Amino acid sequence: MPAPRLTRPAGSQGPGPIPHGLLEGLDLIVARRASGALPGDRRAAGLGAGTELAQLRPYEVGDDVRQIDAAATARTGEPHVRLHVPERTLTTWIALDLSPSMAFGTADRLKFDVAEGVTHVIGRLAIRRAGRVALMTFGAGVPRLHPPRASKPGVVALQRAIAEGVAPDGYDDPAAMTEALRRIGRVATQPGLVVVISDWREEDTWRRPLGALAQRHSVLAVEIRDPREESVPAVGRLAVVDPETGERVEVDTSRRSVRDRFEQIERERRERVARELRRLQVSHVALSTQGDWLGELGRHLS
User: Fold this and answer.
1) CATH code at 274?
2) Which residue among 67, 148, 173, 202 is least enclosed by CB atoms within 10 Å?
3) Residue 170 lies in a domain
4) Could you tell me if residue 7 is inside a domain?
5) What residues make up the domain containing 260?
6) pTM score of the predicted model
7) How many C-beta atoms surround the C-beta of residue 250 within 10 A?
8) Are residues 270 and 294 in the same domain?
9) pLDDT tens digits, the chain, 302 residues: what are they?
């Protein structure tokens, strides 16, 4: 299937205000659950700025005089310098769902708006401590990789990718997340943090590649929901269209049995996703298009 033309969804209002003070108070605590995920937790190749001593040797012309070791110099009567093992920086990989279902929203904002805000927050936190951030988009053609970048270029790359929008209605790629996770597994060679932002309405084929990532990285699953996906009001006959497959179904919402069955199916789906994530030992946070998504995310990260 050819790649669709991305568009910013109609009705998009953005994620809302993101106070700078709140960003300063958050940190990627979840990354500490992965062995070696933070800078300094593992040895890196070569020599550079760090805290662990790699070598103590006589001073040579061109050496940084700030690295002169006073004790060794006094003991030997000859200038000596200290060389350190460089600290390895944390790379955060964001997998962002751009499928048509992300353009849905009936509350304060669209699911895409919440995803945009989460991507911005995670990206800003990722570049702390000289970290890098990469983005893998899926659900809109072949998964697209924006390679790891540090500092401002990393955040700018995220903003440009998000500004392109989501796939149009009728575009269906049921294995999009699965392929994106596999690609991250191939390119993310060093332990880091993987954040998957989606409504998690894809078939459960993502279990195996996500489990493989969880064996090597710290993984956070961000699930974005809308209240109307959990229950339907009693408004009589209602036509429901799947934005990805285009399938159209008419239901009589005035019947209590229909509403109860809808809620049961959705509840079981959400419980199944949560159960699988727990089994894979993946951190999971559910955010809604209604209310304070940022506060809920902050409580999970702080």
Assistant:
1) 3.40.50.410
2) 67
3) yes
4) no
5) 20-37+88-301
6) 0.81
7) 8
8) yes
9) 677 889 999 889 999 988 877 777 776 554 454 334 444 444 444 444 544 566 788 988 777 888 899 998 999 999 988 876 555 578 899 999 999 999 999 999 999 999 999 999 999 888 876 788 999 999 998 899 999 998 888 999 999 999 999 999 888 888 999 999 999 999 998 888 999 999 999 888 999 999 999 999 999 999 999 999 998 888 888 888 777 777 888 888 899 998 999 999 999 999 999 999 999 999 999 999 999 999 999 888 76
Position 15 in a domain: no
Is 8 a domain residue? no
Helix (H) or strand (E) holding 295: helix 293-301
The pair of three-digit structure tokens given for residue 229, joined into one six-digit string: 């996906």
- Judge if 75 and 123 occupy the same domain: no
Contacts 24+ apart (CB under 8 A), 260-263: 262/231, 262/232, 263/230, 263/231
Whether 134 and 192 map to the same domain: the answer is yes
Spatial contact of 300 and 293, defined as CB atoms under 8 Å apart: no
Cβ-based neighbour number of residue 30 at 10 Å: 17
How many angstroms separate the CA atoms of 83 and 61, rounded? 15
